[in-house]
Amino acid sequence: MSLxxxxxxxxxxxxxxxxxxxxxxxxxxxxxxxxxxxxVKAMLPQSVAETGAExxxxxxxxxxxRPGAERVAALGGLHKFMNWPGPILTDSGxxxxxxxxxxxxxxxxxxxxxxxxxxxxxxxxxxxxxxIQRLLDADITMSFDECTTWPVEEPAAASSMRLxxxxxxRGKRAFVERPGYGLFGIVQGSVFPALRxxxxxxxxxxGFDGYAVGGLAVGEGQETMFATLDTTLPMLPADxxxxxxxxxxxxxxxxxxxxxxxMFDCVMPTRAGRTAQAxxxxxxxxxxxxRHRDDPRPIDEHCACPACAHHSRAYLHHLIRAxxxxxxxLLTWHNLHYYQDIMRGLRGAIESGSLGxxxxxxxxxxxxxxxxxx
Amino acid sequence: MSLxxxxxxxxxxxxxxxxxxxxxxxxxxxxxxxxxxxxVKAMLPQSVAETGAExxxxxxxxxxxRPGAERVAALGGLHKFMNWPGPILTDSGxxxxxxxxxxxxxxxxxxxxxxxxxxxxxxxxxxxxxxIQRLLDADITMSFDECTTWPVEEPAAASSMRLxxxxxxRGKRAFVERPGYGLFGIVQGSVFPALRxxxxxxxxxxGFDGYAVGGLAVGEGQETMFATLDTTLPMLPADxxxxxxxxxxxxxxxxxxxxxxxMFDCVMPTRAGRTAQAxxxxxxxxxxxxRHRDDPRPIDEHCACPACAHHSRAYLHHLIRAxxxxxxxLLTWHNLHYYQDIMRGLRGAIESGSLGxxxxxxxxxxxxxxxxxx
Lengths: 374, 374
Fold this sequence. Notes:
The structure is a homodimer. Chain A is of the alpha/beta class. The first copy, chain A, has two domains: 263 residues, Queuine tRNA-ribosyltransferase-like (TIM Barrel, Alpha-Beta Barrel); 94 residues, no CATH class. The first copy, chain A, is built from 15 helices and 16 strands. In chain A, a hairpin with a 2-residue loop joins strand 15 and strand 16. In chain A, helix 6 crosses helix 7, helix 7 packs parallel to helix 8 and helix 14 runs antiparallel to helix 15. The radius of gyration of chain A is 20 Å and the shape is globular. At the A-B interface, helix 13 and helix 14 of A face helix 13 and helix 14 of B.
C-alpha cells in the first residue's frame, strides 16, 4: 500500500535510498526539477529525463488557477498532460498562497485569495488542497500548511506551526490511500528546536509516508538551516523519506545530504538558466559578462550536457545578448544536468562509503573558482 | 570547383535535384529554416536536423552587427559557432539594410547605416558583403543587391535592378572560389517581364552558381508572384539551382515548385511558432483560441513531430496562455517538421511523376479545414 521507501545504505547520517511510486522509482538522494505550470521551463520533458531526473515537482497553486485541476483530471492527469510518465510530487499550494500578502485572507479553516491570473476568487483548505493533488494524480501529495514567515518570534512560530499541524491532521483524513501514492507531512517550527520537536511528534503520531522539513531557506542563512536540520532529522523515523523543501544551491544540497536529507526541489537551476547563470563544478558563471565574448571553451569540458558538448561560452554569451530563447534552453539544460551530476556523485559516494572524500573534493573544487579565461 | 547541382528528374517544369556543398548535400526542392542570429529560434540545431532540414539560412546583417563576422571567423566559422555541421546559405544583408529606412543612406557604391543594436555606424558594399559571408564560411553566398520596393513604377524598378546588376558584377569579382562553395546572383525587375529578362541576361552573362528570384513576396500577391515566376524561370539555365527568396506559406511553396523553383527560405514557420500558430495539412490553427482548451487531440495525428507525438492541443493552449517557452519550442518544431513534410512530399511526387496528383490532394486537404473539434 501507498508508496514504499527502501533504505539501501548509509554513510554517517547520509542515506542512500529508493522510493517506489505508482509511476516508477526514484533513487535518493534526489533533486526534483520544478515544473511549475506543467512544464520544467524551457525544457522538453524528454530532455529533463535525459539529465537523469526521475521525479519532477508540480505546483498546485499555479495548476489550480490555470488550466484548473478538474481540467487536468479530465485530460488524463498531470503525467499525461505534461508528458512526464515518471513520478510527480505536487506541493500543497500553501507556500504560494501565503506569499500573496494583500490578495489573501487566512482563517482557521483555510485561505481565501484572488487569482493573480484573472482576479477570480478561490479558496484553499487542507481538504481542497489534497483533492486538487488527487485530481492532478500526484504520486506524492504534500500536506497543506502555513509556511512560517522569517524572521519570527517563538510564540508566533508556535501558533503558526500548531495551525499547520491541525491542517496536517485534516489532510491525512482527506487523503485517499492508493497503491504507489503517498502523503507527506511537513515539519514546521522555524529555528526553535522545541517547536520542531513538537511538530515531529505530532506528525509521526498522525503517521505519514514521508516527512518534509519546511520553513527553511527563507532567509535564515545556511548555518542556521544546517543547525535546524541537525536537531530535527534525528527525531524523524529512519524508514521514511525526508524532503528539504525549496533547497537550494549546490553546497546547501551537499550539506543537507550529509545530515540525512533524501529529496530536494528548487527553482534555482531553471531560473538561473533563464538569467545567464551557469552552475559548475568550479562555482557560478555569469555568461552575460563580456569576458566570455571570445571564449571558445565550453562552460565545463567535463560536462556531458548538450550546451557543453556542442557550444562555446562565446556562443552562449552571444545568444544571451541577442535575447535568444536557445540561451534559456541550453543554460537550463546545463544547470539541471549539473544538479543531477551532483546527485549521482552523492549517491555513488554514499554507496561506496566515501562521502567524506567526495564532499572534500566537491568543496575544494567549488572554491578554486573558474578556470582562468584566455 | 565551386558547388555542384545535379538535376535528378523533372515533372513538367518542376525539378528534383541535389546540391553538393563543402558541408554536405541538399536534396531539392528544399526549404531552409531561417537562423537569423546564429540560431533557428527556439530550436536546438540537432532538432532542426531531426525535422529533415539539410540547410539553414544565416543573416549577414544580424551577424555582422552581433557578434561580428570577424569574431565568428575567429571562433571557427558559423557552422562551428552555431553547431550546424551541414550546409549554410547566408543572405547578403541587403534586404535588412534597405528596410532600415531612416537609419540608412544609399549611394552608388553601397549603404551606410546605423546599427539598431547599439547605434554604431556601419557600411555595406558588394565587396564587404561578400567578405562577411566568407568570414561566416557560408556554403552559399548571395550577391549584395537592393531589394526593389513595392509598389513601384517601371522606371524606378529599372534603375534599382540596374544598380543591383552592377553590384552583382562587383560581388562576382570579389568572390573567392573554393571547392564546395558557391555564389548566387539575384534576379530583380519587380513584376515587369522585360526588366526580369534584362536582369537574367546580365546575371547569366556574369555567370553564377545559382540564381535567386528576389523582390517577390513583398505585397504583390500570390497570383502576380506566380505570373512573374512563369515568365522568369524559363529564361534561367536548367543546370543551376533556383531559389525563391523569403517564400512563403505552404501553398506558395507548392505553386513555386510546380513552376520550377528548387529552394526556399521563410521566417513564417518559426515566427508563427512563437505566436501560437500551427501550420497543418488542413490549414492553419491558432492554438491560443479558447476552443482548444479541452481538446485532447494532437495538432495533427498524422504528424511525427514531438508536439504531435506527445502533446494535446489543450496542453499547447495552456502553455501559450501561461507564456511558457515550451510553447514556442513545440510549435516551432511542429511547423518546421510540417514544412519539411511538404518538401519530402514534393520530392517524392516529382520522382514518381505524380506531382499533379500530389498537388491536387494537398490543395483539397488544405481546403477541408480543421477536423471538427469535440
